[in-house]
Amino acid sequence: MKVIAIAKNTFKEALRGKMFNIMLVFALVTIGSTKMFSFFTPREEMKMIKDMGFFFIVFFGLLIAIFLGAKMITEELEKKTIYTVLSKPVHRYELILGKLVGTMFALFINLCFMSIVFLVVLYLKERALNFEIFKSMFLIFVSLSLISSIAIMFSTFATTTISVTLTIFLYIVGNIFEYLKHLASKGSAILKFILDGAYYLFPNFTNFNINRDVIHGTAVSGMHMLKVTAYGLNYIIIFTLLAVLFFRKREV
Amino acid sequence: MMLRHKKIYFVFLFIILVLLVMVVPLQRSIDKNLDKMHPERKLVTAPAGEFLGQFLFGFKDIVVDLMWIRMDYYWDHQQQEKMIPLYRVITKLDPRFLDAWTLWAWHIGYNLSATVKDPEIKEKCYWADINILKEGIKFNQDKYDLFFECGWVYYHKLKLFAEAAKYFTLAGQAGEAKDRPMYVPHILAHSYAKQHNWQKSLEIWESVKKKNDENASQSEVVERHIRKMKKHIKMEQMGETVKDDMYP
């Protein structure tokens, strides 16, 4: 119950942070982009519209996940509102969990809005609905939830700027691990051991990206979706546990 | 109290460790799936596209689109020489982008070849066209498009009808039937007829007829070809020479 109350408050805070303005920008850009590529052949035009749509969904989603998550604890500490919360019978893990659930709900609402605009635009163009897009949206949601859990974890011990920087760094690293792993296979045994270890230790964000498959019509099996979701949830739990550990250690 | 805190601390660390151990088989299994879905993943070597793509942090599709828009600018401004390196990068970044492969091959096989007079160089252009398409086919086995384009260059430019028939057959088998246009089996029948294999051509026309009974205008064309093939088979059986402008 306490977790839900904190989550509700976090969501309201996200709304106060002009989250819906970003959605409006997305809606306008997506609708505008349908007219931008009409000089291409219909197939190219559809590819461009879908690419643009996914790009803006991921990009704005990333912004919301990182900035909302990174300021979660730090801002509460700076404004001293955290003392009011913690002076009540609220466990620290409940606070972290509430913040995470609230952020995930804000991301969910944001993604729902963007997906609806995107689907309407695609329907108006193709006169058909491609339900495979939902698979992509779902994995985007899982990856954004993971990013916000990382940002929340960093915000338990660092300032907002450092949390944002570290989260972006982890996102970048999580996107190039496949290459680093390949590089390691050609290097020394020690390098291979280190990079192989890092490949399994840090979240690999390329796992969540099936946008290209959806655009090109490559079949994405339900089992693959299940595995990637389990992978994402696994890391969300890890980072939430780490956040609770760090926050318990922090003197507040 | 201190002991209780320590206990919780170790329990948390233990759970994290267990979850991290669980990640290993999960990631390996995901890798296997991804290798099947993206054969290009095995090409993660510099300066291959996967290498470049990784350094675009999940935003490579938008970079491909921006390059494609630039390509249109070069085309409009008659700067075709600048398009070739872009085609290379685009197809490396997104090997599933069919239009990039087909247009690249078309520029070489049709536009560039038209600017040269030497027949040897012209033929080299056609082969370069074929090689581009074959490279694209490696990544797009489930789409008819590139098989068809490849068959068409063999048919139209190189006049190698046996090879053309091979690729049109593959085009007829790739992907789902609803995605393939009706002209795929038609052109396959023509390539057999070009080889004077009237029987095989007849078989294909008859199978087309079975599938497209409801399309009146098409069935008229199909009927005409069936009559023609039957006539040619009869003529051959009687030892007569078949004279046909379409299939010299």
Concise overview:
The complex is a heterodimer of chains A (252) and B (248). Chain A has 252 residues and is an all-alpha fold.
Write up what this structure looks like.
In chain A, 83% of the residues lie in helices and 0% in strands. Chain A is an all-alpha fold. The two termini of chain A are 23 Å apart. The relative contact order of chain A is 0.13. Chain B is an all-alpha fold. Chain B has helices at residues 2-37, 49-54, 60-76, 83-93, 98-115, 119-139, 145-156, 161-173, 183-194, 198-211, 216-237. The longest helix of chain B has 36 residues, at 2-37. Chain B is elongated and about 105 Å long. At the A-B interface, helix 3, helix 8, helix 9, helix 10 and helix 11 of A face helix 1, helix 2 and helix 3 of B.
**Which residue ranges of chain A are poorly predicted, with pLDDT under 50 across at least 5 consecutive positions?**
none
Largest interface, C-beta within 8 A: A-B, 52 and 42 residues
* Overall mean confidence score, pLDDT of chain A: 86
Terminal CA distance of chain A: 23 Å
Structural class of chain A: mainly alpha
Residue-averaged pLDDT of chain B: 87
Overall outline of chain A: globular
Based on DSSP secondary structure assignment, what is the total number of beta strands of chain B?
0
Give the count of structural domains of chain A. 1
Shape of chain B: elongated
pLDDT < 50 runs, ≥5 residues of chain B: none
H/E element sequence of chain A? HHHHHHHHHHH
Distance between the termini of chain B: 97 Å
Tally the helices of chain B: what do you get?
11
